[in-house]
Design goal:
It is built from 4 helices and 9 strands, in the order E-H-E-E-H-E-E-H-E-E-H-E-E. It is α+β, with helices and mostly antiparallel strands and about 170 residues long.
Length: about 170
């Protein structure tokens, strides 16, 4: 049975690393559902969070193949039960001219912020778990979605035992 799984990586921060990691997934026929990359506290390294779908054998194969890449310094398979994961969403929705009360109420109910507005639109920012972002987008369909921009999921393990840190590479 296929299920979503999340892999965290610490990689060297230089040209071509993202291409090699994504290429590895493509060559093996693994789909990437979500990908987020950013520098760490040490600019020599980047952190990648990759969400994919597959059974246990695919998960093991992904880890095995990633370990072969020279630029991959550390790999961690996140446990869905003990992980903090969030996405970031910007969404522009249509509102009736001058009447944005319903839309503002919806945005507030999800803990979002209005980032831009005009007579006939509102741009909102919402951060939360993937299921919350999915629910919010579905709720916005009633307003007519004009534009949507969604980040990939970013994740950290709960507690301090399984930190994906660059401290040992300094």
């Amino acid at each position: 049975m296929d299920k979503k799984f999340t892999v965290g990586l610490i990689v060297s921060n230089h040209f071509g690393v993202l291409n090699r990691v994504a290429g590895l997934y493509a060559k093996r026929g693994f789909n990437i559902d979500s990908l987020a990359v950013g520098t760490t506290e040490n600019p020599k390294y980047s952190r990648m969070t990759i969400v994919s779908s597959g059974d246990v054998d695919i998960q093991k194969q992904v880890i095995k193949q990633l370990q072969k890449l020279h630029d991959v310094k550390k790999i961690f398979m996140f446990d869905n039960g003990c992980t903090v994961s969030v996405e970031h969403l910007l969404i522009k929705i249509s509102v009736e001219s001058g009447n944005n009360t319903k839309a503002s109420g919806l945005i507030n109910s999800y803990g979002g912020k209005v980032r831009d507005f005009g007579a006939d639109f509102i741009t909102a920012e919402v951060t939360g778990e993937t299921c919350i972002i999915d629910d919010f987008i579905k709720s916005c369909e009633a307003f007519d979605i004009l534009e949507l921009c969604r980040s990939g999921s970013i994740s950290m393990a709960c507690g301090t035992e399984n930190m994906l840190s660059v401290k040992k590479f300094n």
